[in-house]
Specification:
The structure holds two protein chains of two kinds.
Chain A: H1 2-27, H2 34-42, H3 56-64, H4 76-87, E1 105-109, H5 119-123, E2 129-130, E3 138-139, E4 159-163, H6 188-198
Antiparallel strand pairs in A: 1-4, 2-3
Chain B: E1 26-27, E2 33-37, E3 47-48, E4 55-56, E5 61-64, E6 73-74, E7 79-88, E8 96-104, H1 124-133, H2 146-150, H3 152-155, E9 160-165, H4 174-181, H5 183-197, E10 201-207, H6 211-220, E11 228-233, H7 242-250, E12 265-269, H8 270-282, E13 288-294, E14 302-307, H9 312-319, E15 326-331, E16 338-340, E17 353-358, H10 376-380, H11 387-395, H12 399-404, H13 415-419, H14 426-528, H15 531-561, H16 565-596, H17 601-646, H18 649-688, H19 693-733, H20 739-778, H21 785-815, H22 819-850, H23 855-884
Parallel strand pairs in B: 1-14, 9-10, 9-12, 10-11, 13-17
Antiparallel strand pairs in B: 2-8, 3-5, 4-7, 5-6, 7-8, 13-14, 15-16, 15-17
Helix pairs in contact in B: 4-6, 5-6, 5-8, 11-14, 14-15, 14-16, 16-17, 17-18, 18-19, 18-20, 19-20, 20-21, 20-22, 21-23, 22-23
Classes of the chains: A mainly alpha, B alpha/beta.
Chain lengths: 199, 885
């Protein structure tokens, strides 16, 4: 008798928890993999395809499925570190086949040479190129991610990837020289006799 | 005097203010060129509203405010716009920015301006807009648009208005001198602010190292009706910091990330207050300010009332700069200012001081050494941060941690760097960290935007693909539907009746065969004379006949239902034929029976009568059906005629119909001619024999009637022929579908052929007639009727030949492009005509020799022939000459 009671109680509990789990599986269903979103947030969204994927999100998906995290040259080491931190992985060096290009570039169309073929417009992943057929095209510099994808399709090679010029608005305070130069980290009083000794 | 509180930390650097306070404010000399930057404030740069070469007056607006957080720029002096280009501006980066360069004319001519008589009559918004239009921005250091701060009264309760007159930075004495000399104007400016913000308490915070300024202000505020205090705060750097001064005067700390208005306080710089007074009372825009020129590098440190855009070089020159001694030029104070290396950098709204420092005065910074964690920096930090920690985080680029330690609350006052025993440029670290974090944030925003745009583009492309696919699918479905409908239409009314028809026909055939079998049996029986079985056979026959009738009836009913006249007529014809054959067979059987005189004859007779009636009905039905079909054809013709009215295809069809008519007419004419010939030959035979009068006359009458008929028939034919080319020629003129001209061309070619054949026929006839005539002439029967007839015929035929050839030529004209062909034809014509003429003339000679009475007629015909020959010759020569041309 006691066995029957125990079994029925356990069975009842199992049914209740099963229902709760089933309900929550439907109610709190999450579309897609949330980790993919987190990875996608970290990636620089240049949509350049240098990782071998058609855009940042596909690479985020494939990272979530176990691909290496060091294939994003525009993101550089900072992105690799952020990804390693997020996914609790080892920090890797940027993949050898990619050159790290720390200088950010944007596309410029030499407008005199543009023939208005619209090929670059179709290639641009972020719709940053304005123009129409047989009309001059131009790049919206603020929207350009510097992904390079418009350079190859141009039949007249009139697109240049140029570094963004520093001006008064995007100028940045430089780190103090000691930041990179460790020779200054001497005690001032020690330095003078050393110079005198040399002379 | 209100109560003074305290803020954490602070330092006491050497003040060095006395050098520049010895002399009153001097007027700076007017520069030859004033370079006015379009951005002298925080927010959006002003938009240039003048062109190069424009003449501007002092105080004239040269750049408009763009957006809410912006102020306009005014011309500091009269002159001509020389350039709108990049020029060095006072900025730590030392980079150039857009400036409007005005070449001054030395007249310093003001634009028409006047202050507000009573600013209280204006609404607050109007007054604030007025202040904004005068280009007033904070003159303490940051250059925040004053109008924005004044609008704070709209959504914040402002309890306290603090006038920042602390001027805590060493060396700077611009505000001090301003207060000493223009205290009443400052109080007048405070009056405006009081009106706008309506604070319960106004405090002028001033460091106690400026006793003269304090005294001047105290005198100035004596007449004020409202609650205003001049509070001297202890001299300690950075008491002039907005938040520090608020804490000093009210003991209220502005929360992290908040603004003073959040705690009911608005802070304004004393210089800004003076500018507000100038704007409201005198209508003068912010075009000049007091600038301290000091440092050991100048002989006579002094404050100058300087126009915006005046190069620092001019001020330094006026103050007597020792170019050899001066090692650095610092804009702003020694604590928060920055070095400039270009002397033509202009004065802007926020430039309060320029220090020409010597190397002993401000030596190059000692090399930075390792942090010894002494903690001095923490002790002096006015914001109570942990500068040492922040230094580590900034150095290690751990920006997130730096942010967590409230890096952005740092006011970059430089107190920590000042006290650092290791000479670590801490502020520079913080500034670098701050800009790096801001850059990261901007990159993040940009990457979010890029993601958004990328996804939007992908969505759009996907949508386009989907739309295309949907369209294609819809098209395919529609096509399939149309196909199905077509099939259904084809199947439903066509297949089912056909099947029915076939089944009915099969039934009819079966019935027929049974009837035949029964008849066979009956005939067999009758032949054998078996009267016993004869009745049976008869019964069978009757049954079979009934079946047949039923089948026939069913078929008729069905056929009458389904109007298929073309099929109908055929079937009816067959049915009628079958009925007739049956009738014949039955008749034969009856004949056999009668011959053998057997019983059942009556029966057979009755069946025959039945069959006869059947046959009759079948034939009538057939006739009716044919009539129907003809009516249908007629209807078709009429519909074609209707079509002709609308479409250009119709004439071609009509033409083809006409050509059919022509054929008929032609055939009729040919028949008549054949008859005529026959009768003529008969007549000729009779003529050889001694003429028996009645026969001869009869024949002659017949011939004449036939001739008349022939003439009329030919006329009809000619008429119809003549009509045809006319019709054809009209066809291509009409605007037609693409195929129409081709069709009409083909029709023309066909017509041409016809005409050609007609002409040939006519010619051969003419030849024959000629031959006959020749024969008659030879046989000496030229005066007989036949000869006359022949001559008439000949002339007519010749005429006809001519007419047909003419029509042929005219018809051929437009189509034959080859003139050589034409030429050949003409030559042939000419040869023929010549031939005919020769023959005729030979015949004439003979006739004349015989003295025949037909000579006259022959002569006339010969004349005609001659004319024809001539005309042919003329045509030939004309065409050949054309060709040669």
């Amino acid at each position: 008798m006691s066995i029957i009671i125990a079994v029925s109680v356990l069975l009842g509990l199992a049914i209740i928890f099963g229902m709760i789990l089933g309900f929550s599986a439907i109610k709190f269903h999450v579309e897609g993999n949330p980790i993919v979103n987190q990875i996608d947030e970290i990636l620089p969204q240049t949509q350049c395809g240098q990782c071998g994927h058609p855009g940042c999100r596909p690479y985020a998906e494939s990272i979530a499925n176990g691909e290496a995290i060091n294939k994003c040259p525009p993101g550089g080491q900072a992105t690799i570190e952020a990804l390693a931190n997020l996914l609790d992985l080892e920090v890797l060096e940027l993949d050898g086949e990619h050159d790290e290009n720390p200088v950010k570039t944007v596309a410029y169309i030499r407008e005199d040479e543009c023939i208005g073929c619209t090929k670059c417009i179709q290639a641009c992943p972020v719709d940053a190129i304005l123009g129409a057929a047989k009309q001059m095209h131009t790049v919206i510099i603020d929207e350009c991610t510097g992904c390079d994808l418009c350079v190859a399709p141009c039949p007249v090679d009139c697109i240049d990837m140029l570094p963004l010029a520093t001006n008064i608005t995007n100028w940045k305070w430089q780190a103090p020289s000691a930041f990179s130069d460790h020779s200054h980290q001497l005690i001032a009083t020690d330095k003078r006799p050393a110079v005198e000794l040399e002379s | 005097m209100g109560k003074v509180f305290a803020f954490h930390g602070g330092i006491h650097p050497p003040e060095n203010k006395h050098q520049s306070t010895q002399c009153p404010i001097a007027i700076a000399p007017l520069a030859k060129v004033l370079n006015v930057p379009v951005q002298q404030h925080i927010g959006a740069p002003a938009k240039v509203c003048v062109n190069i070469g424009d003449k501007v007056l002092k105080g004239q607006r040269i750049a408009d405010a763009q957006g809410k957080v912006s102020v306009p720029i005014h011309a500091p002096s009269s002159g001509i716009i020389k350039a709108i280009a990049e020029h060095p501006v006072p900025h730590p980066s030392g980079m150039p920015a857009l400036c409007i360069s005005i070449e001054t004319d030395g007249l310093d001519e003001w634009i028409e301006h006047s202050g507000l008589e009573d600013f209280r009559t204006l609404s607050k918004h109007q007054l604030i807009d007025y202040i904004r239009d005068r280009g007033i921005a904070g003159m303490g250091g940051a250059g925040f648009p004053t109008a924005v701060k004044l609008h704070l009264g709209d959504d914040h309760i402002v309890n306290t208005l603090i006038i920042n007159a602390a001027e805590c930075e060493p060396y700077i004495s611009a505000d001090d001198l301003l207060m000493r000399e223009r205290a009443s104007q400052i109080v007048s400016g405070i009056d405006v602010l009081q009106h706008l913000l309506a604070p319960s308490h106004i405090i002028i915070g001033i460091e106690d190292n400026k006793p003269q300024a304090i005294r001047a202000l105290e005198i100035a505020i004596q007449d004020c009706k409202y609650n205003i205090d001049v509070v001297g705060v202890p001299t300690k750097y950075p008491s002039g910091g907005e938040k520090q001064l608020i804490q000093l005067l009210t003991n209220v700390e502005v929360p992290n990330g908040g603004i003073p208005a959040d705690v009911g306080i608005v802070c304004q710089n004393v210089g800004t207050v003076y500018a507000i007074h100038q704007a409201v009372k005198h209508g003068e825009s912010l075009i000049s300010r007091v600038v301290t020129v000091t440092g050991d590098g100048v002989a006579k440190p002094q404050n100058y009332q300087t126009l915006i855009g005046t190069p620092f070089s001019l001020l330094l020159e006026a103050a007597g700069m020792y170019t050899q001694k001066t090692s650095r030029l610092i804009v702003g104070g020694p604590m928060m200012g920055f070095s400039i290396d270009k002397l033509d950098t202009p004065v802007v709204k926020t430039s309060n001081c320029i220090i020409a420092a010597t190397s002993t005065e401000m030596p190059a910074p000692e090399p930075a050494q390792a942090c010894i964690r002494c903690g001095l920096c923490e002790q002096v930090c006015p914001v109570q941060l942990l500068p040492q920690q922040l230094h580590w985080f900034a150095k290690g680029q751990e920006y997130q941690k730096a942010q967590q330690h409230n890096l952005f609350d740092c006011i970059e006052c430089g107190a920590c760097s000042y006290v650092c025993p290791s000479n670590i440029p801490l502020v520079q670290y913080y500034r670098h960290a701050k800009t790096s974090i801001r850059e990261e944030q901007q990159d993040k925003r940009k990457s979010d935007l890029a993601r958004e745009r990328f996804e939007a583009k992908q969505d759009r492309e996907q949508r386009a693909v989907d739309e295309k696919a949907a369209k294609r699918k819809a098209r395919a479905e529609q096509a399939a539907k149309a196909q199905a409908e077509k099939k259904a239409i084809e199947k439903a009314p066509v297949l089912t009746p056909q099947v029915q028809l076939i089944s009915l026909q099969n039934a009819l055939k079966a019935a027929n065969s049974t009837v035949l079998i029964a008849q066979q049996k009956l005939t067999d029986q009758t032949a054998q004379g078996n009267s016993a079985t004869l009745d049976l056979c008869n019964l069978q026959l009757q049954k079979a006949q009934k079946q047949l009738e039923q089948a026939q009836l069913a078929l008729d009913a069905f056929e009458s239902k389904n109007e298929t006249p073309a099929v109908d007529t055929k079937k009816l014809k067959i049915a009628a034929a079958q009925a007739n054959t049956k009738l014949l067979k039955a008749k034969q059987a009856l004949k056999g029976a009668i011959e053998k005189s057997q019983p059942g004859i009556e029966l057979l007779e009755s069946t025959i009568s039945q069959l006869e009636s059947e046959a009759a009905s079948a034939t009538t039905m057939y006739l009716a059906a044919t009539q129907e079909s003809t009516t249908i054809e007629k209807a078709a013709v009429t519909s074609e005629a209707e079509l002709a009215a609308t479409t250009p295809i119709a004439p071609a069809i009509k033409a083809s119909n006409d050509s059919k008519d022509c054929k008929k007419l032609k055939i009729a004419a040919a028949i008549l001619r054949a008859k005529l010939k026959k009768s003529q030959t008969q007549l000729a035979l009779l003529g050889e024999q001694p003429p028996t009068q009645p026969d001869y006359q009869k024949l002659e009458e017949e011939i004449t009637s036939l001739q008349q008929k022939l003439v009329t028939a030919e006329q009809e034919y000619q008429h119809s022929v003549a009509l045809q080319p006319e019709l054809n020629s009209t066809v291509p003129v009409k605007p037609a579908l693409k195929s129409i001209p081709e069709q009409s061309a083909a029709a023309i070619i066909v017509d041409n052929k016809k005409l050609k054949t007609i002409a040939a026929i006519a010619r051969t006839k003419a030849k024959k007639a000629q031959n006959e005539l020749d024969k008659l002439i030879e046989s000496g029967q030229q005066d007989s009727l036949v000869a006359k007839q022949l001559i008439e015929d000949l002339t007519r035929l010749n005429e006809k030949v001519l007419s047909t050839q003419n029509t042929y030529q005219t018809a051929k004209g437009p189509t034959t492009n080859a003139p050589e062909d034409e030429n050949e034809q003409l030559q042939a014509n000419f040869a023929k005509a010549q031939n005919l003429y020769d023959k005729a003339s030979a015949a004439l000679i003979k006739a004349q020799a015989d003295n025949s009475p037909a000579v006259e007629k022959m002569e006339t015909s010969i004349a005609k022939l001659k004319s024809r020959v001539d005309s042919a010759h003329n045509a030939l020569t004309a065409s050949s000459s054309n060709n040669q041309e």
